[in-house]
Amino acid sequence: xxxxxxxxxxxxxxxxxxxxxxxxxxxxxxxxxxxxxxxxxxxxxxxxxxxxxxxxxxxxxxxxxxxxxxxxxxxxxxxxxxxxxxxxxxxxxxxxxxxxxxxxxxxxxxxxxxxxxxxxxxxxxxxxxxxxxxxxxxxxxxxxxxxxxxxxxxxxxxxxxxxxxxxxxxxxxxxxxxxxxxxxxxxxxxxxxxxxxxxxxxxxxxxxxxxxxxxxxxxxxxxxxxxxxxxx
Length: 232
Known about the structure:
This is Glutathione S-transferase. The chain is of the alpha+beta class.
């Protein structure tokens, strides 16, 4: 029997948190080996574990997977969060569904990247960046996802069943609320999706205090992460 996936990253959200969310939604228990120092990162680089010399890295099924999107694609396919099963996905209609899942996921990544990088923003630029995030959240990204849900009247974004796109979007909605809770006020279908996915037993467990879900970066955690990755 294969062991649990082992996640290599620092003790924070960054580019690993979406992987944690997807594993949790699939009901997959995982272990984490935190990178505490720049020397820990160098060790992974020097022993050949990191193809491109960077994390996140996930050990799963005897492989050491790198590149966040590749890892997410593997998990989604393995645990049936990518448009039903592989055989069905060969059919044209389900290939189309898979393309939609990819398209929605990329939209989530675009806005999520802006929010994720906000703590690295110089203080003098932070208000401008926040204004940009608010504007794009309410005028570009959330209206697009709300429109998708409204167009078909189903409970999930694609194929009326949970997919990775729903998991990634709900993760993003939590981050949007951290930026400004009022940003979701005009999007009732997205709020309903957030509630629906959050109440799935696997996700509900992940959202409980004491889980492997990571909190927002505080100054101390940010300083530690910058030292690990040698960011000046």
